[in-house]
Amino acid sequence: MGHDSWNAVDAYIDNLLVAPDPALEDAARANVGFELPDIAVSPAQGKFLHLLARIRGARTILEIGTFGGYSTIWLARALPAGGTLVTIEYEESFAAAAAGHIARAGVADRVRQLTGRALDVLPGLAGDPAAPFDLVFVDANKPDIPEYFEWALKLTRTGSLIVVDNVVQGGAVADPGHPDRGVRGVRRFLELVADEPRVEATTLQTVGAKGHDGFTLALVTG
Which range, of 1-10, 40-49, 71-80, 197-206, averages the lowest pLDDT? Predict the structure, then answer.
């Protein structure tokens, strides 16, 4: 079993369970315009986030890392009438591209985009009408994940979900001496989660079109 097999399984699942959607497909191709690797979540992962939000009954969602708006659209479509998704993106060019994709998907009325360094923006959300958030999705620069997690705890309540993507890093997360700052950030985040009495959490590895990675799912319990 290797990448070809992973890709084939993802394609099979996507064809069966994820309906074609031009707006989502445009957002998924955002990396091409910026000459970047394909860094958005996969279609199956996007639908997984959508279902998590619906299962939770989320009315307010916080996303850290908009990029092309792909996961934003999936999450926003899970919101009921009157729901709000606040998404933060550092790069103005990414945010501008995402705004077009979000509008085309028909969810602009429930998405509020904020631009800037997330650690500078997050303190301003403490008194936001959308807070506390029912679900927080973190998909941004990995060295800062521990701080994003701490803010997610401040901006949620008992029963909220926190989902953090890209926490396996091709297996590198298991290497205590790995030199990469992102890997070290993920390890520090996971150690914080393990020691945090206010959450129950697990991390699952994933393989597929996005390679070998995984996500952490935390339930805020107090």
Answer: 1-10
| CA 12 – CA 197 distance, rounded (Å) | 40
Q: Closest by alpha carbon to 98, among 20, 22, 30?
A: 30
Helix 145-154 and helix 181-195, axial crossing angle in degrees, nearest 10: 30
Residue 123's alpha-carbon distances to 120, 170, 199, 202, 214, in angstroms, are: 7, 32, 21, 27, 28
Does residue 19 sit in helix, strand or coil? coil
Across the beta sheet with 111-115, the strand order is: 111-115, 84-89, 60-64, 133-138, 156-165, 211-220, 199-208
Q: Where are the alpha helices (DSSP H) in 134-211?
A: 145-154, 181-195
Q: Is 35's pLDDT higher than 80?
A: no
**Beta partners for residue 88, in sequence order:** 64, 114
Q: What are the distances in angstroms from CA 154 to CA 34, 42, 46, 135, 171?
A: 33, 29, 25, 12, 30
Q: pLDDT of 102-149, one tens digit each? A: 999 999 999 999 999 999 999 999 999 999 999 999 999 999 999 999
Q: Six-digit token pair at 114?
A: 């904020």
If you search the block for the tokens 């993507």, which residue do you land on?
Answer: 165
